[in-house]
Amino acid sequence: MPATAPPTVLTARALLLDMDGTLVDSDAVVERIWRRWAERHGLDGDEVMKVVHGRQGHASMAVLLPDRPRKQNLADNARMLAEETADTDGVIEVPGASAFLAALRGIPHALVTSADVALSTARMNAAGLPLPAVRVTAESVSASKPDPEGFLKGAAELGVDPADCVVFEDSGAGIAAGRAAGMRVVGVGARAAVHGPDAVVRDLTQVAVEVSGDSGDTGTVRLRLG
Questions:
Q1: 218 pLDDT exceeds 90?
Q2: What is the torsional sign of CA 118, 121, 125, 128?
Q3: 47, 113, 190, 215: which has the fewest C-beta neighbours closer than 10 Å?
Q4: How far from the centroid of its chain's Cα atoms is residue 152's Cα?
């Protein structure tokens, strides 16, 4: 029988969690809405899907339609957000997300998402997941991932140094944002694996959370991955 690889162990004092693709599987609705958008603008749907994960909608539009005025992208994004918020068909939790969040009770953690308040609330509710007390949403930042602002803001709100934070992300933009913030990144799912995170898990069933009780190590969380 082949040998089983030992689990990867990371330590942290706080965790920063992306939502779409990390806690919530919203791929079905993201595909529906963005492929319709691509068709309206005469763009290849497959190419559009390579861009949109992890970014705020207007930031994706800026990449895909670089000559279009920002004001028009923002207006288009507002319509898209309303459409996405109303469509939760097929939105489910990423396997293990509920147990993972339950294990984080009492541990500093924050949701850091490119969704706005309405969309993040709708998707977390649709997936049956509790919203973390600390949330950094689209309204909280001036720049979308891959800019590190959201993760840095999450660490600041938790009162934890960025170097002591571990990010959970699924997208290239999100992984780049976590790295730019000086944080270690756990990639969740196949989409994450190609973007070079510090570790990769298939889903959140492969994450075990342990709070250290060792002398002088109070507040340290051990993450066993794999």
A1: no
A2: positive
A3: 215
A4: 14
